[in-house]
Amino acid sequence: MTTSNLILFKNLLPWATLETLYMVIVSSIIALVLGTPLGVLLSVTRKGHIKENPIFYKILSTFVNVGRSFPFAILMIVLIPFTRWIIGTSLGTTAAIVPLSVAAAPFFARLVEQSVNEVDKHIIEASVMMGASTSQIIKKVLLKEPLPSLISNFFNMMINLVGYSAMAGLVGGGGLGKVAIQYGYNHFNIFIMVSTVVLLIVLVEVLQYVSTLITKKMIQRRGLQIHE
To answer: Pick from 12, 121, 139, 149: CA 20 to 30 A from residue 90's CA?
Structure first.
């Protein structure tokens, strides 16, 4: 390791890692807020569910599918005017949160739909027979029963956003992606490029570990509550 590489490693990579975490965490929270109701709507309006509405489901499903299938690199460019309108600029770490959130919301909506669809229909039917309202069924059954799955899917979304955040460096976003391109690729610095890749892998592994740990504890706690 040369002196210049050591200086870059100490001065750039820690701050770039924090920027990446900032982008991933904030965009994940926004996607959670936007994607959860979308996912619940997709589930409850599908055929045979409590608010069956085939036309509404088809329209919403198509909208979500379009959002999911849009290539992120193109999405960042398309959203530049929208990002400027919201943030005031299309460059920088905060600006990158806009396309990251837009990309993550429909992706998470599908994950929420899958988790909600795993809820036992007998539990839903029992809730309906007991006179529970739609909002009560959603809060106490559809979101509570598959909670371990929802948390696992939330972390899966965050893991995907780590990769997307690196791509944001291509269009002026901050974080490890910017360091990899500006100081690694443009200057043919293999050490910096490899270092950023290693840090991204470490972030993914940490998120996966935390996800597994939380999910296991919730499942174990739920098992103990059932046996009590």
So the answer is: 12
For the chain, how far is it from start to end, CA to CA, in angstroms? 58
Per-residue pLDDT tens over the stretch 81-101: 888 898 887 788 888 899 999
CB of 186 closer than 8 Å to CB of 119: no
Beta carbons of 194 and 186 less than 8 angstroms apart: no
CATH code: domain of residue 208: 1.10.3720.10
Domain range for 11: 3-227
| Residue from 61, 200, 175, 40 nearest 115 by CA | 40
Tokens of 222: 């739920």
172: left (phi over 0), alpha (psi -120 to 50) or beta: left
Tens of pLDDT, residues 201-223: 999 999 999 999 998 888 777 65
Q: What is the pLDDT of residues 15-26, one digit of tens each?
A: 888 989 999 999
Euclidean distance between CA atoms 36 and 133, whole angstroms: 19
Spell out the residues 6+ positions from residue 46 whose beta carbon is closer than 8 angstroms to its own: 52, 57, 117
Mark residue 18 as left, alpha or beta (left: phi above 0; alpha: psi -120 to 50; beta: remaining).
Answer: alpha
